[in-house]
Amino acid sequence: MSRIRVLVADDEPLMLAGIQAVLESAPDLEIVAVAEEGAAAVAAAGRGPVDVALLDVRMPLLGGLDAVDAIRAAAPGVAIVMLTSFGDEPSVLRALRLGASGYVLKTCTPEELLRAVRAAHAGDAYLSPPVARQVIGLIGPAGAAGAERRRAAGDRLARLNPRETDVLRLVAEGLSNAAIGTRLRMSEPSVKTYVSRVLTKLDCANRVQATMLFRTSAGE
Question: Which fold has domain 141-218?
Answer without folding.
Answer: Arc Repressor Mutant, subunit A (1.10.10)
